[in-house]
Amino acid sequence: MAELTLLRRASPLAQSFEQRRILSEGEQRRFEQVLADHGRLPLRATGLEVLQINLGKLCNQTCLHCHVDAGPDRRESMSRETAEACFDVLRRSDIPMLDITGGAPEMNPHFRWLVAEARGLGRRVIDRCNLTILIVPGFEDLSEFLAEHQVEIVASLPCYLQENVDRQRGDHVFQRSLEALRRLNALGYGQPDSSLSLTLVFNPTGPTLPPDQQQLEAVYRRELRARYKIEFTRLFTITNLPISRFLDDLLQSGQFDAYMHKLVEAFNPTTVDGLMCRTMLSVDWQGNLSDCDFNQMLGVPLASGLPRNIDEFNDATLAQLANRRIVTGQHCFGCTAGAGSSCQGSVVG
Q: Structural domain tally of the chain?
């Protein structure tokens, strides 16, 4: 593939291939031409079922695959004013789910307020948790808070083997993750017949597609139970998209073209109906709106004529957003490859 079509905005390595312009009309047409070839255009939203908000890029970890480029040195964090604007959207709409991510979203000072208020409305709340934050000093009561508010936990654990997890997420992360999982299990998370949902997330450690989600879940369950007596509710498999740190790794290893070719060749038209962008609205730490978390990280806003920020949301725009045209790019091949990939795991079974 001759052109680099995705880049990490702050990466000198990625920017050496092209300017800061991320999504050209030509790049969008390439993916949309594939959709057209399979009779899947126009790509539009089919409703608003999830409000996903990124509370910032501050994190207690620095993971190799992180498309957010989060870490302990980041200072981007959602303000109370923007968090209140997000809550106001929930209050004024019937969006059933609040999906909270980061960074480590729990490090935002307004995380607990937002969770409690959303649960007070009866909305489902997902916390995309890195696990190790649950044992960081100052956050020791976080597990109990999440359980008290019936928050659904979606937690990254890219393998059931220590060497693979530590290679991707940092030294000693695996053992700290096990400690956090034991705390959650003791509270009822992931236990059979429990209402406290604990979902684990698998990301490949290299430029490959995830294996079959159902089969891998069975292996995870067997190995975590036998080795560590850990229980969980389900497993999601998520494809690594060539964005930010994972993109840098592909460029440094000379595997970018091969990986993009793999994604394009594995395009599966049956994934299109279940793409997360079709039922999600993504909000960044400043309140800017995107079709999905990946568009958000690339600085790609909603289509022309739509609101740009959460503070522009009103009753009149709700129906417009629920039926909006989705902005696409080359990275969309990652969500449509193989069994597909979304924040809820594989798109097709």
A: 1
Burial class (CB in 10 A: 0-12, 13-18, 19+), 292: buried
Lowest mean pLDDT: which of 144-153, 232-241, 245-254? 245-254
Residue 260 placed within a domain: yes
Residue 341 included in any domain = no
Residue 349 forms part of a structural domain: no
User: Which residue type is seen at 188?
Assistant: G
Among 246, 248, 230, which residue's Cα sits nearest to residue 238?
A: 246
Tokens for 74? 């980041």
By residue range, what is the domain housing residue 222?
A: 12-335
CATH classification of the domain holding 59? 3.20.20
d(CA 154, CA 64): 19
pTM, full prediction: 0.90
Is omega for the bond preceding 42 within 30 degrees of 0, making it cis? yes
> CA 96 → CA 22, 99, 283, distances in Å?
32, 10, 16
Weakest-pLDDT range from 20-29, 204-213, 277-286: 20-29
Is residue 6 in a domain? Answer: no
Q: Return phi, psi of residue 19, to 5°.
A: -75, 180
- Number of CB atoms found within 10 A of residue 48's CB: 22
The secondary structure of 94-139 as a DSSP string is ---EEEEESSSGGGSTTHHHHHHHHHHTT-EEEEEE-SGGGGSTT-
Rounded to 5°, angle at Cα 118 from 59 and 147: 65
Cα 283 to Cα 250: distance, rounded to the nearest angstrom? 27
- Please report the pLDDT score of residue 63 as a whole number: 65
Q: What is the pLDDT of residue 6?
A: 38
Confidence of residue 72 (pLDDT cuts 50, 70, 90): confident
Mean pLDDT across 138-162: 93
